[in-house]
């Protein structure tokens, strides 16, 4: 954590003041959700995340480094093997990924395990495979499957659609080549939290087709399942400032200001042009809620866990309803009442319950 001392001291003072001002705990939140959320809200400001959309690329990279230094690492459960590898992208880049293998017995028996491709969160700008190490390990152990956690390229240097393209490339690789690392290419799922859930949705929708077969009900996704935790799914909802976006705009970790800034940098790069943000934001690969009905219908069984007190609640609920209305089967909402955005990777009791539930969902839908 290379921070100047002056910064540390003023950060500590402002943090204390923030906590004193906000000392009344909202009755709908658990303490374990409320206090970290208020601290992170403060850190967004202290590290520069709230003004991401007014910075140039170098300054955003500096913000990325500050946030990475402050991101806690969860307690890691043991897995049999952790391998760093790369997967080729369509444009000649080697996408780094971390492969978690949970079971030496299965490996010794040459038994193929299911594969979950995991896409980390962080608003398409922050985060890394390392930042979700604890969740990736827990999913590997609890699914008795491989987890391939992807360091997809991110904004500001690689705005939309590169992060989606990298996600698609890794999933397509797994569907073809999983056997080369001990995985079962017929049992590949995608999972992700926050922006990673948005990318997971875009990846699953990208694999849909051909349209006539989907509409005739004669097509199944090559993915056995998707788990999309608290995903942003519509740029229009973030831009509109209504419903859950208005209700939780200034509280509980994912501030509306932060979400809007992240969307802008994702959609149009550093110092984003508002016109371009608006146009790109309507692309369904950026805003999966805008996907045509036939693509929604082609989703694999999809679990959508989310927090009741998060700005994204409305778009997540509307996405599930829109998908179900097209005839997509197995789309399931799971609402966590007393927690906030980001709970999945927090190590809190809700997180442990959710990881276990998600692993059960993956196991059930990806059984041999
Ligand atoms: C590991 O793989 C073996 C062989 O398939 C299986 O019997 C065992 O249940 C697996 N272990 C766990 C913890 O799932």
Can you give me a brief rundown of this structure?
The protein is of the alpha/beta class and 368 residues long.
Notes on the protein architecture:
It contains 15 helices and eight strands. Strands 1-2-4-3-5-6-7-8 form an eight-stranded mixed beta sheet, sandwiched between helices. α1 packs across α2 (31-47) and α6 packs across α7 (195-206). Helix content is 45%, strand content 15%. α5 (133-143) links the parallel β3 and β4 (146-150). The chain has one domain (81-365): 3-Layer(aba) Sandwich (Rossmann fold). It is of the alpha/beta class and 368 residues long. The termini are far apart. The chain has helices at residues 5-21, 31-47, 57-70, 104-108, 133-143, 162-177, 195-206, 211-215, 235-240, 243-247, 256-268, 274-281, 293-297, 313-325, 349-365, and strands spanning 81-88, 94-101, 113-119, 146-150, 183-193, 225-229, 302-307, 331-336. The structure holds 2-acetamido-2-deoxy-beta-D-glucopyranose (NAG). 2-acetamido-2-deoxy-beta-D-glucopyranose binds at residues 103, 105-106, 109, 111, 144.
What's the CATH architecture name? 3-Layer(aba) Sandwich
Helix- and strand-based class?
Answer: alpha/beta
Sheet with most strands: strand arrangement: 1-2-4-3-5-6-7-8
- Tell me the domain tally: 1
Q: Under the CATH scheme, which class?
A: Alpha Beta
